[in-house]
Here is the input.
Amino acid sequence: TSDSVDYYRLVTERPQASLGFRGYRVLVPYTAKPFYLLLASRSGSWNPVFFAMLAANALYCSTAACLLVSIGHQVVGDYAVALLGATLFLLNFTISNSHMSGMVDSGEACLMMGVIWALFANRWAALPWLAILGALAKETFVPLALVFALGWWWAAGGQERLLDSRIAWIALMATAGVATVSTIQSIVSQQVVWPWSFAALMRSDRSILSGFLRSILDHNFWFVFLWLLPLGAFQLRRMPRPWVSASFLSALAALALGAYVDARGGNVARSMFNVAGPLLSLSAAAMLSNAEKDE
Here is the structure.
């Protein structure tokens, strides 16, 4: 795809303004650079850049899966179910066709799992650092992670303690993420790029309703969620309420962002999967496990 071509160039060249917004997503391509330099003269008939991107994406996807196993065991108390959840996560259409195919969504998925892990571990101080890395992976990470953390905080009783330290860490996460996005864009563009200027630039000429319909009616959207959503919905009541609330709200935020920029179904589905896919995968695994026990 044209996206992969641009990320290909980020592995072999310096970020350039001519790449547009993709030129700001440096985390995964720069993770691939050491693999590329190591393999450039040793890859034979293999394309060293695509192999390097595959290695980098595999690193992020496998890290996300390991975090999901750890969290899954904490939630359901059964490693078999947790491993099945991670397996369903990795077998999803978007992992093989997007996250592992020369794109950069694996970085966003991995760091979203990092946010989930930090919230489960009550390590709110890790959120600003995750926001910095996430902003370097993909600018959409910042609003999605912010909505996720706010949803988690609210569902965990945050509305009763508006001045607790957790809201301060969330505010610092938002500040760090927005500052990182603005800084990397300014460096690449060689001029100051304010966050609101970038947001206005990304606005589609189409209406929000049109962008919304084009997102949910696209076949690529349903390739991701056609089986995952119904299977995962059955056991959501067993999942921690803050995780369910945060995933739901951030998935809605991803859909709203997609409608705003007219991102189409595949792009929207990737972002929605990154925030809600881990929960739905674990919930689906719990449902399948219970169905087997009932037999």
